[in-house]
Design goal:
This protein is an alpha/beta fold and about 230 residues long. It has helices at about 1-5, 45-55, 60-75, 85-90, 95-105, 125-135, 155, 170, 185-190, 205-215; strands spanning about 10-20, 20-35, 40-45, 80-85, 115-120, 140-145, 165, 195-200, 220.
């Protein structure tokens, strides 16, 4: 798998993040890595990401994906794309500097780039500080999988973020308090103290959409609005 990342076997599928009451109004497209192996079999990120993380090849994957996404942005001035970056890359000085160089070389594209910080690694103080640098380059920052990642509420309050994404598991397993408010309502309320845009992930049914709308989420993402696919088929 790591050889496929470093060669030419890497591509991506994209899924839209939409305004909650106007699904056709796309905030951006989140990009999900795909790898084609030597036999021509396509593997999604969920299949190979754990292996890459254990072998430290996820550093290379993030950098290669960023190159691909920047290339797509350069070809289409109407695109806004999201690139997943591991919190581990924020903490590793060499990899962090490489990501900054990649973005800085294409500074005119930065306003159409959203960096989604994934938390398979703790978001440590150094990483939090470096997010301010990302934003100074012109990118927006999204914190992915809030509620299921490693960021504590106290840590999240220190994060300079533009977008908070509520994890799909918390959208699908809503509980109601004695006061009649849903658990999702409280999560969205807290996240709104950190960022102006709150995305409810994993929207697959009308019930999920209703729960997201009632909670105060501003945007949604999920199979109800389309599965990840090649941008050419969108």
């Amino acid at each position: 798998m790591s050889k496929a990342v470093s060669d030419r076997g890497l591509s991506f599928a994209a899924q839209k993040v939409s305004q909650i009451d106007v699904p056709d109004k796309v905030l951006y497209w989140e990009c999900f890595a795909r790898i084609v192996d030597a036999r021509g079999v396509v593997h999604s990120a969920s299949a190979f990401a754990p292996y890459l993380e254990s072998s430290m090849a996820s550093f290379d994957l993030d950098e290669r994906m960023l190159d691909l996404i920047l290339s797509h942005l350069a070809r289409d001035p109407n695109l806004v794309l999201g690139c997943n970056i591991s919190a581990a890359n924020l903490a590793a000085p060499h990899h962090w500097k490489q990501i900054c160089r990649q973005i800085d070389r294409h500074s005119e594209l930065a306003p159409r780039l959203v960096l989604e910080i994934t938390e398979t690694y703790p978001l440590v103080a150094e990483g939090v500080g470096r997010l301010s640098t990302v934003r100074s380059l012109g990118c927006r920052v999204a914190i992915d999988n809030f509620g299921a990642g490693m960021a504590t509420p106290a840590r999240l309050l220190t994060v300079p973020a533009d977008i908070i994404k509520i994890d799909a598991s918390l959208v699908r397993n809503v509980r109601t308090s004695r006061k009649g408010q849903s658990s999702l309502h409280y999560l969205v309320g807290f996240a709104s103290c950190v960022a102006p845009i709150i995305v409810a992930e994993g929207i697959e049914t009308k019930e999920h959409l209703d729960a997201a709308r009632d909670s105060g989420a501003t945007h949604v993402q999920g199979f109800l609005f389309g599965k990840p696919a090649s941008l050419s088929t969108q």
